[in-house]
Amino acid sequence: MNHSAPGNADKTGESLAARFAEAPHIAASATEERRFEDWLAELEPAQLARLETLLVHPFARDILAGIAEFSPYLFDLVRADAPRLIRLLECDPDAHLATLIAEARDAVLVATDEAEVMRRLRRMKAEAALLTALCDIGGVWPVMRVTAALTDVAVSSVQAALQYQLRQEAARGKILPPDPEAPEQGCGLIVLAMGKMGAGELNYSSDIDLIVFFDPEATTLAPDIEPQPFFVRVTQGMARMLQQRTYDGYVFRVDLRLRPDPSSTQVAISRDAALNYYEREGRTWERAAMIKARACAGDAKAGEALLAEIAPFVWRKHLDFAALADVHDMKRQMQTYRGQSEIAVEGHNVKVGRGGIREIEFFAQTQQLIAGGRHPELRVRPTLAALDILASSNWITSAARDELTTAYEFLRRVEHRLQMIADEQTHALPEDKEAVERFARFFGYPDREAFARDLLRQLQIVQGHYEKLFEGDDPTGTAELPALDYGAGPDDPRLLQYLTTLGFKKPAALAQTIRDWITGDYRVFRNDQTRSAFVEFVPALIDGLARAEEPDRAVVAFDQFLGALQLGGRLITLLGQNRDLVALVALVLGAAPRLGEMLARKPQLMDGLIDPRFFGAMPDKQELSARLAATVRDADSYEEFLDRLRLFGQESLFLIGTRILSGTVSAQQASTAFADVAEGTVHTVHDLVAERFAAQHGRIKDQQTAIIAMGRLGSREMTASSDLDLILLYDFDSDNPDSDGPKSLQGAHYFARFTQRLISAFTTRTNYGVLYEIDMRLRPSGRAGPVASSLVSFADYQANEAWTWEHMALTRARVVSASDEFRERIERIIRDVLTRRRDRAIIANDVADMRRAIAQEKGDSDHWDLKYAAGGMVDIDFIAQYLQLVHAHDKPEILDVSTLQVLDNAARLGALPHSEAEILRAAARLYHDLTQILRLCVSDGFKPDTAGTDLQRVMARAGDAPDFSSLEARVKETQGEVRRVFTALLEGTSSASAR
């Protein structure tokens, strides 16, 4: 297939179907062809005949068959309106898009109510979404024509929604427009399109980033109307019209969080307040964001005037050191050390991952920031236009432009295809090879390997150019470390000047700290050889700390670390030989003191960080099991076995935690890795304790034991602080209940003692602490029941006595240690329980009651309590569990232990509208991303006011937000959306409860 995607749009006059130039790869024995053919068979004869005449064109049938198999969202659009599909396949795509937008705009002008406007805009968006997808998948439009088309639809939608709101306000006498047909003219309200919308580069399932300002001195407001509340209300109305989910879906998700300090400001900000903010507090990322800003709706003249007034903030006149330092600060924040190993394809984020889209955008934007003040020709919005002008102006080579342009177009097409699957704003490839194989075929490749080769080549090209950016004038001075007296202290002007050049804001304090390191009484330096090695390492250490996100804070954290270190010679040697790791260690020390304490106690943990495999693909369950077996294989005693298990667990926690902080694994990958470590440990402990217990008490005839994981281990959604929710089941020959050992035990007593021994292996505190905390309250009858349950009593309890909440918990049950035969018996019982018919109203009431009870006990008002907050993770988990209990009888395929997979299944099976599933999936991913960080870095509840800047930055990065204030606003908005879905589905306040 042609991944440069030049498009096939020049065949003027020919139908879209005739212009297709490529298609998804359809396997000969695949089901996608049958799924599409089944749909064709349901059509009316006239529609089928008309469609068949279009499907004779090359690629047309494979495109639709591929959509049927790989994209639930697009296939829903296809099935919902066959005449629409036929209309699109017959059209000239460029002319049809222009007509579609114009007709929607005209319809809005004559609409009599808001519902009609919303309906018209949603139907326009749905048709445009299918049209652009067909043009992208079929290679008809080049990728940047696709992004321009999506942007045109967005701009027109924003203008139409805002104009309707203003017309309504004019009818109420709130504004007095000179031209009632164009109430936006002179109204003083300015809507800036930011990011990809501003640059005309929207991706397929993009949010639209808007900032809304108003000029209170130049409006058409009636004399008695206050500007701020009026324009806030209009902005909220416009956003609601675009993003509220209705029967017809939504138009665009609206993101208003790029405004100044979004967690504490209104959604519309006055012009003077904005200018004051940018002049006094504007940050580097906000300068970069404003490169792409353009006035897209509202008062056009006022918008252009405002952009002209903001321009000096963005485009500085002089190519000075401060501007260059800003750029290096941006690069440092993006470039937390991520190793030099091979990039893993599975789970890779093509937007923010290594070699991704953001690095190309950064490459262009930062050079625009540096030089755009003196060279106005560089002040262009589109990324590729910027690369072109940078090349023609000799800022970069033509080869760099060409390579980055090809990579950008390729990665944007990958991004689009990912988002077409479920209309989600996702940028990450699937986590497993089988799913990547399916994606590769949707993208037109025959298999994963062919796709991976092209993807990795482009990522590596981008990474190569990105790493060389400003390499020659790096103010951190990595090329050569000057010969200075680092022990001279704050009285040496040469040392202070050098530290300032590196970017430290408190050079005198740092100089004193360095002197203390070299001459002070640190316990770790009582060994002269260690002190000598450290003195030699100091220049490289300072260089590495300068590359931390906040160099001065990194120094303080490292100083505290040195104070806690006892035997550090090996650690200092390793850091001296791997300078790039210093910035990563500084991040760990600053953001996650818990990990820093582990490293201070066990410097050998650093070994894992320099392993070339560390930054590659995460080890799978099999590899982890092999490592664990090697760790405990030659333990001389049971006590040493327990110590080694704990050391393995702590090393795994440290390594996975460091990868979370460095941004080199997704939350899902980290969750799976934590679960794999726990599962391997459970299986190992189960086997050893069973063996030792049998040596003392013997075995019972035909005995079987199994450990069932519940909760976060069961769903493979663990964090660094998760305990283990376990149930132990057993079975034996009831006619022969006595064990055959020297200290014989009988039946239930045998297994109760065995379970207590098992719990002790996890929870006994040794020199290396506790392995895991164990929670067995989810067993039948909870604390009142026996610690171990027979299989017969478990089945009887679940069938006849268990409460709804216990069946909710059972949706996550997963057998993690048992013989194959016993595992199958248990899984059959669980499946039978979950797939029995239930009364939907009763279950909904039970789930809602339980959620209210939890809110009363735990509270739900703290939005940073991501688990228990109203609209938090518990709401999403309960929705997934409710859907399984009420639909599993008729649709058993809905069942899965993973909340995200259940939501996918529910949407695919029609048990949950795609729009609601998308809200919940996006929210769950955000909560998982942030929860992994918080569980790693915070012992108690998270309090933003006392959280360090390091932690806030890591959280903002994890939430893909430009700063912490934007992240906080996103969390609040997300929780509101989730709570709305929860209420509609489980408390019957909308038509969703009838589904």
Helices and strands in order:
Elements: H1 16-19, H2 32-41, H3 45-55, H4 60-70, H5 72-80, H6 82-90, H7 93-110, H8 114-137, H9 143-171, E1 189-193, H10 195-198, E2 208-214, H11 227-243, E3 254-255, E4 268-270, H12 271-280, H13 284-290, E5 294-298, H14 300-314, H15 321-334, H16 357-371, H17 383-392, H18 398-422, H19 433-442, H20 448-467, H21 493-502, H22 507-519, H23 528-546, H24 551-564, H25 569-577, H26 581-591, H27 593-601, H28 606-610, H29 621-632, H30 638-662, H31 667-697, E6 704-710, H32 711-714, E7 724-731, H33 747-763, E8 774-775, E9 788-790, H34 791-800, H35 804-810, E10 814-817, H36 820-834, H37 840-858, H38 873-887, H39 899-908, H40 914-937, H41 949-958, H42 964-986
Parallel strand pairs: 2-3, 2-4, 7-8, 7-9
Antiparallel strand pairs: 1-2, 1-5, 6-7, 6-10
Helix pairs in contact: 2-4, 3-6, 7-8, 7-9, 8-9, 9-11, 12-14, 13-14, 15-16, 16-17, 16-20, 17-18, 18-20, 19-20, 21-22, 23-25, 23-26, 24-26, 26-27, 29-31, 30-31, 31-33, 31-40, 34-36, 37-38, 38-39, 38-42, 39-40, 40-41, 40-42
